[in-house]
Amino acid sequence: MKKDLISIKDLSKQEIYKIFNLAAQLKKEQKQGKSHNHLLAGKTIAMLFEKPSLRTRMTFEVGMYQLGGHAVYERLIGEKIGDREAVQDVARNLERWVDGIVVRTFSHQNVTDLAKFANIPVINALTDLLHPCQILTDMFTILEKKDRLDGIKVGYIGDGNNICNSWICGAEKTGIILKIACPKGYEPSKDMTTKSLFITDNPEEAVKDSDIVYTDAWASMGQESEKEMRTKVFRTFQINKRLLSNANPDALIMHCLPAHRGEEITDEVIDSLNAIVFDEAENRLHVQKAILSLLLRNEL
Ligand code: CP
Ligand code: NVA
After folding, report:
1. Domain residues for 74?
2. Which of 7, 144, 166, 224 has its CA 20 to 30 A from that of 127?
3. What pTM was computed for the model?
4. What confidence tens digit (pLDDT) does each residue in 158-185 have?
């Protein structure tokens, strides 16, 4: 039976580590110059994007090429999947031509509907609710740096958005201890876990003793009209040297990118030796190659 990747919740701990192990192998082999073009030779994916992207688009397209396949990218501008024809018809067309769908949408429902109607794997490349490929990559990056996930303390500072929601799912599966700091009224979705969460509106509390300090944009894609208002609300949630004086001196700094320098993070912090943001960005390629290979070969 085909498997989708809509949320980290869909994966068992064992499946998550299967992705990480393959990603580590592919990364090592890629650096040794070993070709992976037998893994998905002749396979194709459709990439439907309602929102802009640098990292996700590049890494899925390059990844598919390195695996011996091909990606067809379609950027929907001012149009949502389901506007021109029903989502179920989009699904039933695509499944006749390609072997997988990578999709970035505003509405999370559109992704779950595509997955329901298409008889091929559907991979969530970000919705307003979740960004599973990003947080899987972030956890893989932490594993590379710290050799474990269980018991690692992540302080998430900022908006309770798609990134924060996926962190909640990822932490629950791996034993990461997550502390979230967000302004009142900007908390993450209540549907991510039934377990109790550490949520505070005091960023100092969330960074205290953290091994990792993580942040994201204050205004996500689609919230551009709220940017001015949000900049005021989130002003005290900036990752800067003063806030980090409460963290472990060796705490690693993470950001899914794109970063808004001078807003949620200062130049001084993002350019510091403790920042691993470009390692995260690089690993999107290796982790997504593992996801593509496992899902399209029906091995997960
Ligand atoms: N982090 C991330 O998903 O970046 P893009 O929006 O550039 O794809
Ligand atoms: N929360 C951000 C993540 C970008 C990768 C957004 O949705 O725009």
Report:
1. 8-131+282-296
2. 144
3. 0.98
4. 999 999 999 999 999 999 999 999 999 9
